[in-house]
Amino acid sequence: PRSTHSSIHPQRRRASEGGTTSWHLSNYQLVAQSSRYGSLWPLPQKVQLSDVSFKLTTSSFRIVDAKESSAGPSCKHLTFLNFSCHCVIFSTSTFVLWATSFEGNEYELTVNQPFAVLKAPKVWGALHGLETFSQLVYKDEFGTKNINQTTISDFPRFAHRGILLDSSRHFLPIKVILANLETMAMNKFNVFHWHIVDDQSFPYLSRTFPQLSQKGAYHPYTHVYTPADVKMVIEFARLRGIRVVPEYDTPGHTQSWGKGQADLLTPCYAGSKPSGAFGPVNPILNTTYDFMTQFFKEISTVFPDAYIHLGGDEVDFTCWKSNPDIQKFMEQQGFGQDYSKLESFYIQKLLNIVSTTNKGYMIWQEVFDNGVKLKPDTVVHVWIGGATDEEMHKVTGAGYTTILSAPWYLDYISYGQDWQKYYKVEPLSFNGTEEQKKLVIGGEACLWGEYVDATNLTPRLWPRASAVAERLWSAKDVTDISDAFNRLSAHRCRMVERDIPAEPLFSSYCPHEYKGV
Amino acid sequence: SIRIIKKYTCLNMNYLLLIMIHIGVGLHAVGGVWPMPQISASSPEQYPLNPEAFYFEYGRQSEAQPGCSVLDAAFKRYFSLIFPDYFPGDNLSVCAGQASLKAETVWGALRGLETFSQLVYQDDFGSFFVNKTDIEDFPRFQFRGILLDTSRHYLPVQAILKTLDAMAYSKFNVFHWHIVDDPSFPYQSQTFPDLSAKGAFHPMTHIYTQTDVQRVISYARLRGIRVLPEFDSPGHTQSWGKGQSDLLTPCYKGGTPSGAFGPVNPTLPSTYQFIARLFKEVSSVFPDSYIHLGGDEVNFFCWKSNPDVRAFMQKMGFGTDFTKLEAFYMESIVNITSTLNKTAIVWQDVFDYHERIPEDTVLHIWKGVPYDYTKELSRITKAGKRVVLAAPWYINHIAYGQDWRKSYTVQPLNFSGTEEQKKLVIGGEVCMWGEYVDATNLTPRLWPRASAAAERLWSDEKQTSSVEKAFPRLQDFRCKLLRRGIQAEPLYVGHCRHEYQGI
Question: InterPro entries from the xrefs (chain A) (predicted)?
Answer without folding.
Answer: Beta_hexosaminidase_sua/sub (IPR025705), GH (IPR017853), Glyco_hydro_20_cat (IPR015883), Hex-like_dom2 (IPR029018), HEX_eukaryotic_N (IPR029019)
